[in-house]
Design a protein that fits this description.
Blueprint: H1 3-30, H2 36-59
Helix pairs in contact: 1-2
Length: 60
């Protein structure tokens, strides 16, 4: 894949992870409960995909 495209994908995954963290904090402040776990999992998955894309971009 094109390195520029992989960089854009990496940035999108990082932004998604950061937004998930902020949404989880907001949800915890308003409602709390086990629903926060969904946002935490989404953030972890987003950061894992960003890390994977980063490694893929560096190898290529």
């Amino acid at each position: 894949m094109n390195k520029t495209f992989l960089l854009i994908l990496e940035i999108v995954w990082i932004i998604t992870g950061v937004l998930s963290i902020f949404a989880g904090i907001r949800f915890a402040n308003r409602a709390g409960g086990p629903g926060v776990l969904i946002f935490v999992l989404l953030a972890i998955i987003s950061f894992l995909f960003a890390w994977f894309r980063h490694r893929q971009r560096k190898k290529g």
